[in-house]
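Here we describe the complex-level prediction in full. Unlike the single-chain runs in Section 2.1, the three entities below were treated as one system.
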Amino acid sequence: MTRISFENVSWEYRTGEGLAISNVDLDIESGSFIGITGPSDAGKSTFCRLVPGYIPHYFDGDLEGSVRVGGREVSEASIGELAERVGMLFENPFDQLTGASTTVIEEVAFGLENLGLERETIVERSVESLRRVGIEELIDRNPQRLSGGQSQRVALASVLAMAPDVLVLDEPTSQLDPHGAEAVFEIVAGMKDQGYTVIVVSQRLDRLTPHLDRLLVIDEGEIAHDGTPQEVFTTPGVEEVVDVPQSVRIGRRLREEEYVDSGGIPLTVGAAIEELRPQIESAADGGSAATADPVAEVERSANDPRVAFENVHHVYEGV
Amino acid sequence: MATGSSTRERMGEFTTLAWVLIPVAVGINVVGGTVTNLLRIPIYLDVVGTILLALLAGPLVAAVGGILTNLILGVTRSPTIIPFAVVNAAIALVAGYFAMRGWFRIREGSDYLKLAGVGVIVALTSIVVSLPIVVTLFGGLTGTAPDIVVGVFLAAGFDLVPAVLASQLVIEPIDKIASVVIAYFIAKSVPERYRPSFGQRALSTRSREK
Amino acid sequence: MSADRSTEIDVEALIENADGSESVFEYRPGSTPLHRLNPVTKLVVSVALVLIAFTLPDFWGPLALSVALLALVALAGVAKPVLTIVLAVGTPLALSLVIIQGLFYPENQTVLVAFGVPVIDQLAFYVEGVEFALLILFRLTVLMIALLGTIVTTHPKKLTIALMEKGVSNKIAYVFMAALQFIPQMQSRARAILDAQQARGLDTTANLRSRLRSYVALMAPLLIGTLIATETRALALESRGFTRKGERTYLLDVPDTRLDRTLRWLAVLAVVAVVGWRLWGVVA
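The structure predicted for the assembly as a whole is:
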């Protein structure tokens, strides 16, 4: 099994200003589901790049400390070697495809061909990976012609085909439409039960929060908070650096206003509704219409992106 | 960082990033030509990708991109384009050589003359290398507009070689100077951290690192 | 896992018949003997024929080869796509060659036909010029038909696999496939931007300066975004063993039969024979 450990890790890009990550000390248990959040440019992506060895093998800069994946020192293994343990899913669903495939099956098989596996194994593993992410029917489609959500799932299938046991997902849904994001979230949420160690970075973790074993908040290159989602979200001042899910806010207000006095903070809309139910039922008949609204609002904000642009071109006149 | 880089490093290495840039450069070559057609710009601009690659990743990577451009055009448009792969490769080597020598480090206005200089040299390279191909394989004619110039010179009693030369002297320098300048501005617009290390050195206007 | 189910999938048929391929590659699926030959064999034979055509001294040889090749592509059922390109490229070239060389070829001596033309008195086509024009033309026809015949009967994926099995680097195979896929994508994006610009009043008849400006305005956003995206692609490729040293395997089986090997040897022998014959003629 694969355990990940960071010992006093600091990193500075050769072209960047200052430390992107500083003094990170961390142990990630095999099979755990870790969420990472924090403001933009806080070092979340840099953190992700350390696990599959992109830092220090691809990016130039100064690395201090040690990162180990399954007992293996990352700086001493190549990216290709690490890829058999660590799979990485990037934010942009199109850029991470090879661009050299005429069909989805070729795309998923690309890494397996490079590993030199038997032809039958390649086909089996490719088809199985597509099945796992629920897009078997896309097998003969041109990867350049898929929607963002489909493309992201092809990328995930390509990563799973390499049979890693750690998955690092860097903002896997932030460039997808709500429908595509929902589909990807659903698959990711199921990955833990399949035995993967999952590290998922997102500025909005709402949908995944109930599945997380542990939530890290990275701010200015350091781990600012580390604990269960309940612990982190109820830490005073945490809303300054992270998006606290609406259900948590509601739960906190309910406790502040002393409507509820016990139990863990609700991490899902469903749990928030359960907490609200006694309040609704105790309210007078006439009030029921009014209390239906907040629930609807919670639900909507959990699913809608604020602004979504896809493939937008604009050129100003006369330029 | 190590002082004194190896020859391989100075010529630009075949890193994964370089391999990924090659298809992009091929695309720029092909689409650049199409767009000038659509905009009815009377020059080719069909080696902008090759020159850009020479600037970003060095002469050898660019040569692969240049050859691939003609192979792809040979496959998608007409096989008669394939022999001119040699020309595209030569342009890559020349542009990459001048990038290595720092001709793309623009610090002041007069440095732009260096770009024009590279453009002229690239144009000459293109003419000299394509001449034997046009004359021996195509009998001097390619079924395009400059054929008329060749015809006029032949009619005036010139030999085939000078006639073909004359047809190319008109358009090549303008086309190649424009290509070099466009490639330079595109390369400059790519944020430094996304450039391969060859490109970072070729475009760096900071004083030489030790 | 239902392994038995997945092995039943005919990956080859699936890739070959995939529709909606955005590739500009003019591949026509089929199962004729020409389709079934190893792609490397087709390439070697094509190149050999081109070399022979360019070695033969007069136009009769290349003409005969062109006719033979045309019959072959017709048998493979791909005459139409091949001829479309041959005619599109060949017609202006043929006109240019026959007119200009027929009239002005420096070695012209023997008049073939002459027309009385006002002002310049007489216009004559010469035998030497026309023969030279036909020689060049049929050499190029051999080049076009041979290579186009190879291209339209070979799926690009199979071509790259066959080449890698003969020792070509997987990186070369990658850039070839990626460029083929990338061009139509970029072309449609450029066209979309151009359409948008025209809708907003871009004038393709405006002066050259402003059209050059439009060129830059059009290409810059397209290119810079694409260049930045290469970082993610490079990382993804590395994670999928792109630079791994050692044995590779391929999704498709591209057979290399005894027939293939025989044809390749015959092609090499034919080139040697023709070149030898020509050299002998020069020496003697």
